[in-house]
């Protein structure tokens, strides 16, 4: 059966990365790890986060992650946004604008509340514009501020 999964290239931190991601997401599991010896770091690994399958490769320093690829996490509410934001920016992660961040491995994520789609896709054109302008000023997205902007409050 044909399938597609992203392959994430790490520089000697594959075991740490897999542990971090599988602890961060509630629905997560490691499905395969290949090591050259029991005491060596993983060379490749496969894992799942919220049903999305990933391959990880301990490939060395030749390539780095950049913002041209990111993973989009749709959150149910502000509590989920806060959880993912604080967890993924901890220990060397970096905040960016409009809900984007880099985790401590340099991988880019978009942490987005479902309410963003409601405000940017609402029937009120002026409200949509106000919500967009509010979002463009945010690092972490704040649901209440997006909703206030949409409502014109």
List keywords for this structure.
153 residues, alpha/beta, 2,3-Dihydroxybiphenyl 1,2-Dioxygenase, domain 1, 2 domains, four-stranded mixed β-sheet, 8 strands
List the helices and strands and how they pair.
Layout: E1 7-10, H1 14-24, E2 28-35, E3 42-49, E4 52-58, E5 70-75, H2 78-89, E6 94-95, E7 100-102, E8 108-113, H3 114-120, H4 125-136, H5 143-151
Parallel strand pairs: 1-4, 5-8
Antiparallel strand pairs: 2-3, 3-4, 6-7, 7-8
Verbal overview:
The chain starts with 6 loop residues before the first strand and ends with a helix. A hairpin with a 2-residue loop joins strand 3 (42-49) and strand 4 (52-58). The strands form two sheets. Strands 1-4-3-2 form a four-stranded mixed sheet, covered by helices on one side. It contains five helices and eight strands, in the order E-H-E-E-E-E-H-E-E-E-H-H-H. It has 153 residues and is an alpha/beta fold. The model has no long low-confidence stretch (mean pLDDT 96).
